[in-house]
Amino acid sequence: MGAYEAAGESDEWYTPRYIFEALGVRFDLDVACPVDRTHIAVPADSFISEGSLDKQWSGLIWMNPPFGHQATKRKWLGKFFDHGNGIALTPDRTSAPWFREAWRRADIVLFTPKIKFVRPDGSLGLSPGTGTCLWAAGPVAIKALHHAADGGLGIVAKPISPGADQ
């Protein structure tokens, strides 16, 4: 739970429109969409609101999953990287085991400044307690993250294999 989140309140925090404008892509599928999409800015053709981890994903996906327990992040990121085509948004918890596991599977990662997410009522949240990163899987996602970085959204990092010549 970030410093701006009050205990017991919703864990629904929606990605603001400027993130998608910076990426410059349209997604085939949003795999973690709320049932009420009133304040959702994701440019996608299809949406999964419930049971996403048990459903088939196809095409270029957008994933802003629940930020809950690390076991939850592992499940979502595991399916994301198994799918291999999309962009995922998570906290940038670089010291967490789930983060290091995901790092080894990512094509590139874009570290962003703190994102003020949109609340379910459409209002803008306060500054979160941590930064955020976007994970790329596949060539379209790689290009989108580079495009966003070139536009000033953040900095790109490319994971390297342990022991690789540098």
From TrEMBL:
Keyword Cytoplasm in record: no
Per UniProt, what is one GO molecular function of this protein?
site-specific DNA-methyltransferase (adenine-specific) activity
- Swiss-Prot/TrEMBL GO biological process terms: DNA restriction-modification system; methylation
Output the superkingdom of the source species: Bacteria
Keyword Transcription listed? The answer is: no
Instruction: Tell me the keywords, alphabetical order.
Output: Methyltransferase, Transferase
Pfam families assigned to the protein according to its UniProt record, in alphabetical order: Dam (PF05869)
Give the protein's recorded name: DNA N-6-adenine-methyltransferase (Dam)
Q: Which organism is it from?
A: Rhizorhabdus histidinilytica
